[in-house]
Amino acid sequence: MDKQILCFAIRINSYQHVELQEHLIFANPHRRIDGWIRENPGRVDFITGLLYTLFCIPAALSLASSMSVAAVLAVLSLSLLQSAPLMVRRRCPWAATLVVATGHLLQLGFDGLMMFSQVSVPIMVYTMAVYGKRWQSFSTLGLGLIGALLATFSMFGASRYSPDPSPVFTFDMMISFVGLALVVTLSWTFGDLARTRRLAMKSLKDHAERLEKERLTERALAASDERNHIAREMHDIVAHSLSVIITQANGARYAAAKDPEIAIETLKTVSDTGRASLKEMRRLLGVLRKDEELENRPLPSLTNVPELVESVAVSGLNVHLETSGTPRKELPAGAELTIYRCVQESLTNVIKHAGPDTQTKVHIEWTSRGLNLSVSDDGRGAGSIVLEGVGQGLQGMKERVALYEGTCTALPRTGGGFAVNVSIPYTED
């Protein structure tokens, strides 16, 4: 649920649907303005900094109206140094802070001079606390506190030249320093809180993006795994069914001349095998098409192994099924399907490679550790498989068995023939 909420939140933040945008423009103009401000922080800083600078210039000129031309130019320059850097406060926060600090340091030459552009101090302290590096943030806080102390001495500096000089640090000076220091500290505190929130939102957004990427990756892996699974199923169905159909068709062709009844029975087996295979194919294609109207046939299990062996025996293969032992617990449905497919693939290889008059034995044994399957024959299939190489069938068997932490070996037998041994352990809870 948390993943879905995070992914939903990040999708809403990046939502670009035209109808929603039109609704926000005409029904909620303030949201449009807020979105523009968030998307264009550099332009916002430039516009607000420019307006602030234009306002500080006449304020500085009004203070210097009774001064000389040189003093007026000096005060005007100080005002520009203290206000203009706000136009790039988020783009170059540290450089802007140093320029503002330099302007206030030069202002100490004018004892008692108070300028409107000094409002930039808490603004820059806040900005550095939000966007600056950690050491820059604390450095700006320190500069602000030192500036508060120097500004206090500057405001009360005239007392040094009075006939009756007051104490070095009077109560009024202390109140002034505490007030200025409190302004600086509160600006830094609010900026640090905003920094924490900004980093938390950024972390949340990054986490949501990672979850979205992981979801897409997992979906792609699941689709790939499902394609491999369907490919194995298709191979098992097609290879087994066609092998049985080809064998039965050849037998019916030879028997048609001598005993038509045997040929008719053989053709019926071919028809039944083809019909069953067609149902399996429809089931798999229904999965690919996601057609819910198709009737999904239950997957084969261990109970269907005798039917499988019987259908192969009808095709002319001399095969015998043996079972021994008692199951301690049930195997998962997928494991039973794996055993069924292993039997199916093994018998298909016997039909294709073992040759005529082959004796085949299928042995299913329940042990205390799990289920063992052995399919062995005495034909010439070992040499054929070695010459043709290991195909998709044996490889698919090994992959299926490995999913349930089992083992699968397919090797030639001593004295001729081929044997497939499969072992699947119980799943311990």
Give a short synopsis of this structure.
This protein is of the alpha+beta class and about 425 residues long. It has 14 helices and five strands.
What does this structure look like?
- This protein has 429 residues and is of the alpha+beta class.
- It is 67% helix and 9% strand.
- The protein is built from 14 helices and five strands.
- Helix 7 runs parallel beside helix 9 (171-255), helix 8 packs antiparallel against helix 9 (171-255) and helix 11 (305-314) packs parallel to helix 12 (333-354).
- The radius of gyration is 43 Å and the shape is rod-shaped.
- The model is unreliable at 1-6, 8-20, 22-27, 158-167, 291-295 and 386-390 (pLDDT under 50).
SSE arrangement, N to C: HHHHHHHHHHHEHEEHHEE
Gap from first CA to last CA: 26 Å
Our count of helices gives 14
Overall mean pLDDT: 76
Query: How much of the sequence is in beta strands?
Result: 5-15%
SS elements, strand count: 5
Helix content: 55-70%
SSE topology:
Layout (H helix, E strand, L loop, with lengths): L1 H12 L4 H10 L1 H11 L1 H23 L5 H15 L9 H15 L12 H12 L2 H22 L15 H85 L4 H30 L15 H10 L3 E7 L8 H22 L4 E8 L3 E8 L3 H8 L3 H11 L4 E6 L5 E8 L4
Parallel strand pairs: 1-2
Antiparallel strand pairs: 2-3, 3-5, 4-5
Task: Summarize this structure as a short list of keywords or feature phrases.
429 residues, 9% strand, alpha+beta, five-stranded mixed beta sheet, 14 helices
